[in-house]
Write a structure and sequence with these properties.
Mean pLDDT: 90
Number of strands: 7
Helix content: 25-40%
CATH architecture: Roll
CATH class: Mainly Beta
Oligomer: single chain
Distance between the termini: 44 Å
Number of helices: 4
Structural class: alpha+beta
Strand order of the largest sheet: 2-1-5-6-7-4-3
Length: 153
């Protein structure tokens, strides 16, 4: 997707409280603000998302079925604390990639919601990464780790 295309989607998203038409109609859309892993430049990317509960959503690095991960994948791996826009809200999330059985358990749920994901996955040799975006009630920074969860104490 080109910069002009993304800019138009971002403008439409912001003008309509997170709703976008065209090929995006009916899909929840999230804007992720990620910092370039190499460039350190902030970029905003519109993505389809899968709301899981009030504080969590999933996103898939499908890259349209390409053999390569999208650029934002590497940005999230390098800088997982990001800002997102969802609907009319803007907030901080922690992006964590699912691996192994966690990804395997989540994948059928995602494909059930958007069957095209299954088609895209079948058309590429790479496994499409899945991230869980978890809303942070307290600001996190790369130098200050998250507080332990109840299961870790």
């Amino acid at each position: 997707m080109g910069d002009d295309y993304n800019a138009a989607i971002i403008d439409e998203f912001r003008a309509n409280n997170g709703r976008v038409g065209g090929s995006w109609t009916g899909y929840p859309v999230i804007l992720i603000h990620q910092v370039g892993a190499r460039s350190a430049v902030e970029r905003t990317t519109p993505l389809s998302c899968f709301p899981l509960d009030h504080d969590r959503s999933a996103i898939v690095a499908s890259n349209g079925g390409s053999e390569r991960h999208p650029h934002w994948y590497y940005n999230l791996k390098a800088n997982p604390v990001i800002t997102v826009e969802l609907g009319a809200e803007t907030f901080t999330v922690l992006a964590e990639e699912l691996h192994g059985t966690a990804r395997a358990a989540m994948w059928p749920t995602l494909v059930a919601q958007v069957p095209r994901l299954g088609d895209l996955q079948q058309g590429t040799a790479r496994q499409m990464p899945v991230f869980i975006l978890t809303r942070q009630r307290e600001q996190l920074s790369p130098t200050r780790p998250a507080l332990p969860t109840a299961s870790e104490t």
